[in-house]
Specification:
Number of helices: 5
Number of domains: 2
Mean pLDDT: 83
Oligomer: single chain
CATH superfamily of the largest domain: Jelly Rolls
Structural class: alpha+beta
CATH class of the largest domain: Mainly Beta
Order of helices and strands: HHHHHEEEEEEEEEE
Number of strands: 10
Strand content: 25-35%
Strand order of the largest sheet: 1-2-3-10-5-8
Helix content: 10-25%
Low-confidence stretches: 1-16
Length: about 200
């Protein structure tokens, strides 16, 4: 005679703490804004949400609507899920697909810049793939004090200028230079040039 099996115990999932989610969202908005060096006014201009509302959100004094949250996420170049997700719930492997247009920082007839580092991380290092057409140049204003860039040429010939200094680099060459002064990357070859660019903020 078979023994009766014990009834299976079903464990209900833990309820979502709405206050905790709201608090985490407010913290994320403030951290993302500060990591980019944006003022409240700059974020307001980028997302179309009033400065006073953003200030209340960052202080966890206002619970943003879904529409407002989406606009804030878009201003940071994130999806809604990336803005509100809990880091503990994320996979340990983050893949950036080559065809994902969200990571194309810039794309025009002369220059293409693709972000190779996750957009939603508060980070001190950024990684890019850069493609410059012949005679094209990427001119940049000074970044934060102490910022450096590391450029590795994969194809073509480039000239790197940092302040008053310039150097020519070719396939396989790497250059490191100060990026807290005006700096330029120019294609001096006859064909398109491709390079990998790492930006490190002090």
């Amino acid at each position: 005679m078979k023994k009766k099996s014990k009834p299976r115990q079903v464990v209900a999932p833990s309820p979502v703490d709405a206050d905790q989610v709201s608090s985490e969202l407010c913290r994320r908005v403030k951290e993302l804004r500060q990591s980019r060096g944006w003022s409240l006014e700059a974020l307001s201009n980028a997302c179309g949400v009033s400065r006073s509302m953003l200030s209340q959100i960052e202080r966890n004094e206002a619970n943003p609507t879904l529409a407002v949250t989406v606009r804030i996420a878009q201003a940071f170049g994130l999806t809604l899920g990336e803005l509100v997700e809990s880091p503990q719930a994320s996979s340990s492997i983050h893949v950036i697909r080559a065809h994902d247009r969200e990571y194309h920082y810039r794309s025009d007839q002369s220059c293409s810049i693709r972000t190779l580092s996750p957009l939603h991380l508060e980070k001190d290092v950024e990684f890019y793939e850069l493609e410059l057409k012949p005679n094209a140049r990427l001119q940049s204003a000074p970044h934060f004090e102490g910022t450096r860039e590391f450029l590795t040429v994969q194809k073509g010939r480039l000239r790197v200028t940092s302040g008053d200094d310039s150097v020519d680099v070719e396939k396989g060459d790497s250059a490191s230079y100060h990026a807290d002064v005006p700096h330029t990357i120019a294609n001096t070859g006859r064909s398109a040039a491709t390079a990998f660019l790492v930006v490190i903020y002090d």
